């Protein structure tokens, strides 16, 4: 593929992925969580309990800002604090049962929107093409 076509494909693919992500975010329960709160819950769900400092670094925000985000989630009963396993000066935050329910609801809403869009807007042949493309997209990700 000529260089110009690769550049065009990169631009088009980047724009399509960004639009898809916006629609997926919009599909999650309205008013339930801010984007930062969703990111924190997802990170704790996949990575396990974490400190405010670790979450702030991962999300590229100041610890003070992360404290506010964590505080709001803790107040709603979505996160719980516990002593750090090796450093008594710190605490770690993990998902509560309600937190796991919220994460599940957000993910299910995104999944439902995408499954419905695939079924309603694409032919069987187009879905097969997209299935192949999904494998190619995964190959683009760093290992």
Automatic annotation (TrEMBL):
InterPro entries given in the database record: HTH-type_Bedaq_tolerance, HTH_MarR-typ, WH-like_DNA-bd_sf, WH_DNA-bd_sf
Molecular function terms, GO-annotated: DNA binding; DNA-binding transcription factor activity
Gene3D superfamilies found in the cross-reference section: Winged helix-like DNA-binding domain superfamily/Winged helix DNA-binding domain
UniProt keyword annotations, A-Z: DNA-binding
Domain called HTH marR-type: residue spans: 6-142
UniProt-listed PROSITE patterns: HTH_MARR_2
Transmembrane segments: none
PANTHER family: CONSERVED PROTEIN, HTH-TYPE TRANSCRIPTIONAL REGULATOR RV0880
Descriptive protein name: DNA-binding transcriptional repressor MarR
Organism listed in the record: Streptomyces platensis
């Amino acid at each position: 593929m000529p260089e110009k076509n690769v550049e065009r494909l990169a631009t088009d693919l980047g724009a399509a992925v960004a639009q898809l992500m916006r629609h997926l975010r919009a599909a999650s329960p309205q008013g339930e969580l801010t984007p930062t709160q969703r990111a924190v819950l997802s990170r704790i769900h996949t990575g396990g309990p974490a400190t405010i400092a670790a979450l702030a670094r991962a999300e590229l925000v100041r610890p003070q800002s992360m404290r506010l985000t964590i505080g709001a989630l803790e107040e709603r009963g979505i996160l719980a604090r516990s002593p750090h396993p090796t450093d008594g000066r710190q605490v770690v935050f993990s998902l509560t049962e309600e937190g796991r329910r919220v994460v599940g609801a957000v993910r299910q809403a995104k999944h439902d929107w995408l499954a419905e869009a695939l079924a309603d807007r694409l032919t069987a042949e187009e879905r097969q093409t997209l299935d192949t493309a999904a494998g190619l997209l995964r190959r683009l990700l760093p290992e």
